[in-house]
Design a protein that fits this description.
By secondary structure, this protein is mainly alpha-helical. It folds into four domains: about 1-60; about 60-150, no CATH class; about 155-185, no CATH class; about 190-240. It has helices at about 1-30, 35-60, 65-90, 95-115, 130-145, 155-165, 170-180, 190-215, 220-240. Helix 3 (about 65-90) packs parallel to helix 5 (about 130-145). The relative contact order is 0.07.
Length: about 240
């Protein structure tokens, strides 16, 4: 079971790394007209390099907990800002996404060394340094965004009409309404947040459910199953039934 879980996570991460490097870097900037055979070879090469790099870095890890703390507390701090702003701020662009991710991830990579140099400034537990890395990433996002022009207006209008996100989209909303007076923006912020909270609780329940089942902890298992059922019924009314075609 543990080996199966490891292989599932490992293969998914490896495939994602190959796709990112080959599609987003090699094909976009280095060799856009690469033939299929070359693309396949590059995928194999990137896969081998990523595996070797990962194994090498593994020898420098003290324990699993330290790596997990760094991923959750450090790396996520530099990862979340860009992935949130891309949905809720119309001015955010690819340049802002790149610099937000770059500044956040670079800060996370430097964190173990900076903690040694300035022990009185940073917490020993990486999880507590999350807010600082998050702020650095936001600064990178904003600075990067304003160093490049906005995304094409037609692209933004199409996205806004299709997704109807809430957030800082007023300029695009006005343009869309000017084209279609019958268009209405998303007014369900509170309901969406309510559904998000329920979804998080349900996800946690699904995570812990197999543990209760394997250990045969009957009462916690029953409570978890009932809780999942109640949440599913609520989400059926507050989310599923309100989805539009």
């Amino acid at each position: 079971g543990l080996l199966g879980a490891f292989m599932g996570t490992f293969s998914g991460t490896l495939n994602a790394a190959q796709a990112y490097v080959v599609n987003d870097i090699y094909l976009k900037y280095i060799n856009p007209n690469a033939p299929t055979k070359t693309i396949i070879s590059m995928n194999y090469l990137v896969g081998v390099v990523v595996v070797i790099l990962g194994v090498t870095l593994g020898f420098f890890a003290k324990d699993v907990n330290s790596i997990l703390q760094w991923i959750v507390g450090g790396l996520y701090g530099g990862y979340i800002a860009a992935n949130v702003l891309k949905w809720y701020w119309w001015r955010f662009n690819a340049n802002g996404f790149f610099w937000g991710m770059a500044s956040g991830i670079a800060s996370a990579l430097l964190l173990p060394y900076v903690k040694i140099w300035f022990p009185s400034v940073f917490f020993s537990l990486d999880l507590y340094n999350w807010p600082m890395l998050f702020v650095i990433s936001i600064i990178g996002c904003i600075a990067g965004t304003y160093t490049a022009p906005p995304t094409d207006t037609e692209v933004l209008k199409k996205f806004y009409r299709t997704v109807r996100p809430w957030g800082f989209w007023k300029p695009i909303h006005e343009l869309v309404v000017a084209d279609d007076a019958s268009f209405t923006g998303n007014k369900r912020f509170k309901l969406d947040m309510f559904n998000v909270v329920l979804g998080i609780i349900a996800q946690l329940c699904f995570t812990i459910l197999p543990m209760y089942f394997i250990l045969w902890m009957k009462l916690p298992l029953l409570i978890t199953v009932v809780l999942i059922g109640v949440i599913m019924l609520i989400l059926k009314k507050t989310w599923w039934d309100k989805l539009e075609n």
